[in-house]
Specification:
The chain is α/β, with parallel strands linked by helices. It is built from nine helices and 16 strands. The strands form five sheets. A four-stranded mixed beta sheet has the order 1-9-8-7. Strands 3-2-16 form a three-stranded mixed beta sheet. It is globular, with a radius of gyration of 18 Å. The structure holds arginine. The site of arginine (ARG) has 16 residues, from loops.
């Protein structure tokens, strides 16, 4: 077994979740202003047929509704300015992975974006976090690709990462991340092109509950998710693919913000005791992104 990286149920059996250090959850939201958002190429299957079809005023209104929802739920929203020529910069989940060290100092790991057109986004985010006092922890040039919180998602409240790989992030990045951050990483293999980031098919709601679209994972990965989360809410196909219901954000372990219209997912969330705030992100769905993609939580 590679140090700290967990790839099977057998390796997972050796991990004592309760013994992992606690991790403070960031409470502020960072969003990137949408004035330069566009679909200019097809980086994921959801973008096909949408080149040049973004309604910018509508996108801006949806973005403002999302920011207002976060504020209404009690979370401060900071912004970073979108840049001309960086049409995907609005998806703030991807450019860095923020975390917090054992010394209480926050850090970010800058991404190594797979698509050339997205690489220019990273320096803008790096500068924003550096100005906020974050330490910058770099992956090496050999780490392969890494797309931040699109693929690397913290287990709620613990120093434990879930690491999706396949379409975007390279498994090698997790070997480096585990060593660099000294946290275990449970690797999840993504097997369908439409579920190109982990955040399109998985949402950690609380330490004990997750939204999952099962068919996006290989068998071993799904088994590891089920072994860790006592409650796995399975999202039906249409709500996961067109509705982006897994690309949700659970605030304070209680309120789930997600794209409007995922009727069965919403019913399952309410039955499990969660509150639900539905928002409209239709213009961003044309680019393969929704609620989770449009923000990064910051300390
Ligand atoms: N068009 C963007 C891309 O394909 C969407 C990124 C959405 N972000 C996310 N975290 N899933 O790169």
């Amino acid at each position: 077994m590679r140090p700290f990286v967990i790839q099977s149920r057998a390796e997972l059996a050796g991990l004592d979740l309760a013994a992992l250090p606690a991790r403070a959850e960031p409470q502020r939201v960072l969003m990137c202003t949408p004035e330069h958002f566009d679909v200019v190429d097809v980086k994921n299957p959801h973008m096909a047929g949408h080149i040049g079809h973004i309604d910018r005023p509508r996108a801006a209104a949806q973005w403002r509704e999302l920011a207002a929802t976060f504020r209404r739920l009690g979370h401060e929203v900071a912004t970073i300015a979108g840049q001309p020529g960086l049409e995907d910069m609005v998806f703030a989940a991807n450019q860095v992975l923020p975390g917090i060290g054992g010394d209480g100092r926050p850090y970010v790991v800058p991404s190594h974006m797979r698509h050339e057109r997205r690489r220019g986004e990273v320096p803008h985010y790096r500068a924003w976090f550096a100005a906020q006092g974050y330490a910058i922890r770099e992956l090496s040039a050999d780490a392969g690709f890494f797309e931040g919180q699109g693929d690397a998602i913290w287990h709620p409240g613990r120093q434990l990462l879930w690491g999706g790989h396949g379409p975007r992030t390279s498994p090698r990045a997790y070997d480096e991340l585990a060593a660099l951050l000294r946290v275990p990483v449970i690797e999840l293999r993504l097997v369908q092109p439409g579920y190109y980031h982990l955040d399109t098919c998985f949402c950690a709601l609380s330490p004990a509950a997750a939204l999952v679209y099962p068919a996006a994972f290989d068998g071993e990965s799904l088994a590891m998710l089920r072994a860790v989360f006592p409650l796995v809410i399975e999202v039906p196909e249409g709500e996961a693919s067109h509705g982006f219901a897994c690309n949700a954000l659970c605030l304070d372990g209680r309120t789930v913000v997600l794209q409007r219209g995922a009727v069965r997912t919403v019913a399952a969330l309410r039955a499990a005791g969660f509150e639900v705030a539905e928002v409209e992100t239709g213009e961003f769905l044309k680019s393969g992104g929704s609620v989770f993609c449009l923000k990064v939580m910051v300390y």
